[in-house]
Amino acid sequence: MDEQWLIQSAQKGDLEAFNRLVLAYQDMIYTHTYRMLGDEAEADDAAQETFISAYRSLSTFRGGSFRAWLLRIASNQCYDELRRKKRRPTTPLEPLNSEDEELESVRWLTDPGDTPEEAATKKALSEAIQHCLDELPVDFRSVVAMVDIQGLDYQDAAKALAVPVGTIKSRLARARLRLQDCLQGFWELLPSRFRLVGEDRA
Amino acid sequence: MNNERISARDYEEISAYLDNELAQEERRRFAARLQNEPELKEALEAVRRTRHILRSQPLMRAPRNYTLSRQIVAEKKSLFRFGWGIKPAIQTASALASVVFAILFLYNFVMFQSGLNRVPMAAAPAPQQESVMQEAAPTQAVSDQQLRSAPSPYPPEQPMAKQAPAGAAPAEGQPYPFAEEIGGMGGGEESSAPAIAEAPLMGVMTTTLMKPLTDTTPIPLAEIPAQTEVVPEGGAEAEALATSEAEINAMTESGPTPAVTAEPIGWDRRFWVQQIVLGVAVLGFAWMAYIVGRRR
After folding, report:
1. Hey, is the C-beta of B250 within 8 angstroms of any chain A C-beta?
2. Nearest Cβ partner of A198 from B8, B49, B67?
3. Residues B192-226 pLDDT 10s
4. Does the CB of B80 have a partner CB in chain A at under 8 Å?
5. What is the ipTM of this complex?
6. Residue B104 burial (CB count, 10 A)
7. Cβ B214 vs Cβ B198: under 8 Å
């Protein structure tokens, strides 16, 4: 269905039209909040709050990229959550085995679409990326999440983060450089197709 | 590892080149550099690999649907209304407090400046007034000379205490010295009587402003008109002057007058207290408006 029509209907109070938009964007928003926060439960809450905030302030949407507008709300939710975490640091209660080692998450092992080997590869890569993203300052992380993970161009990312395009450009370059250094430590864990990208193109 | 011979600016260009965010001319120039600089090309490939890894990540699946129900919307709507109702109120209060703060600050600043300006005015005019008196009142020449020849008990920068009796006689077109010191509020060109009539209004303010700046103890202004009325003419004037100087001397030696010490809080201090309170109010309202705005 046409996105503009759904937005206009939602602005007139059509909750069903808004829920169609929610279904279309919820994976994207959840991915963004997860990459920003690095925690599934927090990402889940932030995603829900994002859609509630979006519905409440739908009248302020004046056209343009709806995806960038949603990502901006999601980013603000994440910033708020990160500030809260900073004020009240908590210790994660991960399930541990008898030797105090973290238990494997069943989420990845029960994915019906992947073989165990593929699931393990995806998990290793995703965790390596998340680990490196967590190491970044939050301003850098948000730019990488917008441009490299969500695929926004510089203009939309600048609008979504309310910063100039030049800032996006410099933050992204520096963030990629840091990620490159960080991912070097995980290079052997990555599948060969990632390691050989550079050689193939050279 | 990063190539340390590649500058941060080069990395920005590499990144923008990969994202196709360089202008046409910049892109052409950068492509030419890539042909000639193998290190730059190596750095570009490293960034390309990192970028590819990041972009190869699929979207994660949301653990549940985030669709909204009528109940959730209704709950949030009441909060929403509260937020919208209180936000303009807080913003208006913040703006009003800012305006009052600015006005009060400016007023206090001007008053403080005028207080500073009075210090040199009070200290300087002694010689000037002596020459004016010589020209304007020839009948007093003898008595002035007598006064000058006698050792004066006052330092030259006695502001009101010395000027009051001296300036009382030459009321012929000369502004009353204290009227000028009040910042012109008493009308500098008028006779001394209206100036003195207004002086008590400003007296508390002036004395409190002047107090930390000069060591001169002000005299009660009610004394001044009384002295001007009893100023005798001719030769008796010198005696009257000597008498009034003796009185004033006694007053200055006796220390601060009860009228000054009885003032519990000076106007300047009240202004500062008001400014601090308003400043805190401005910051508080602004912070509340910011919090309410962020929760939208």
Report:
1. no
2. B49
3. 444 444 444 444 444 444 444 444 444 444 444 44
4. yes
5. 0.78
6. 17
7. no
